[in-house]
Amino acid sequence: MSVTALATAPITTLDTTTLDTNKNVIREFVAALNDRSGERWVPLLSPGVIDHNKVIFGEEDAPGAAIEGFRLQLAAFSTEGEEDGFHIQQLIAEGEEVVARLRVTGVHTGAHARMPQPTGRRCDVEQIWIFTVRDGRIAEIRAVSDRLGMFIQLGWDWPTMD
Fold first, then answer.
1. Of the N and C termini of the chain, which has fewer Cβ atoms inside 10 Å?
2. Contact present, 109 and 77 (Cβ < 8 Å)
3. Main-chain phi, psi angles of 87, to 5 degrees
4. β-strands 137-145, 122-134: how paired?
5. What is the pLDDT of residue 13?
6. 3-state class of 115 per DSSP?
7. SS (H, E, C) 52-79
8. pLDDT of residue 156
9. Cα angle value 128/157/126 (rounded, 5°)
10. Residue 140 — left, alpha, or beta (φ > 0 → left; ψ -120 to 50 → alpha)?
C-alpha cells in the first residue's frame, strides 16, 4: 500500500469491549485457580478446551483433557503462604487471544504421574500463557514457563526422554 493510500485509508477502531471482556475471563480464571475451595475455574474452560502443553501435566491428547491436568497441577502445589498462587503481572489482548505474564509461587506438597514425590520446597517462576477465548470461555491454552528454574528450585532431576 502506498503512503498516500495509507494516509487516506479509513481508521478502524478496536472493539475494546471484546478485548476487555476476554481479559476479564482470564482474570476470573486466575482468581478461581487461586481459590482452592472449589472448582470455579472449570466453567471458564470450554468443555473441549485444548491444552497445547503436556510436558508437565502429561494429560492425554484429547479435547477437554486439560481440565484433569489442571486438577493434578493444583493438587501438587499448596497455596498456604500469603504470596502463593498465580499472580497476573501483565495482560495483553488482541482478537480472541489474551497473553498473560504470570508469576507462580507455591510449595510442592503433592504428586501426580508426571511429578516426583513432594519435596516440600518452594518455587517461584515466571510463565507466559496464551489463551484463546471464544464465547466467554477459554478454548485453547498455550504456555511457556521457566521449567529449568522450577526444577532447580524444587531439586528435581531434569527429565529424560522415555
1. C
2. yes
3. -125, 115
4. antiparallel
5. 56
6. coil
7. CCCCCCCCCCCCCCHHHHHHHHHHHEEC
8. 82
9. 15
10. beta
Helix (H) or strand (E) holding 44: none
Cell numbers at 58, concatenated = 502429561
Please, what is the average pLDDT of the chain? 85
Burial of 161 (0-12, 13-18, 19+ CB in 10 A): exposed
Q: Which of 26-30, 33-37, 122-126 has the lowest mean pLDDT?
A: 33-37
Mean predicted confidence (pLDDT) in 19-40: 93
More confident position, 111 or 56:
111
| CA dihedral of residues 16, 18, 24, 29 (deg, nearest 10) | -150
Q: Cell 513432594, residue?
A: 118
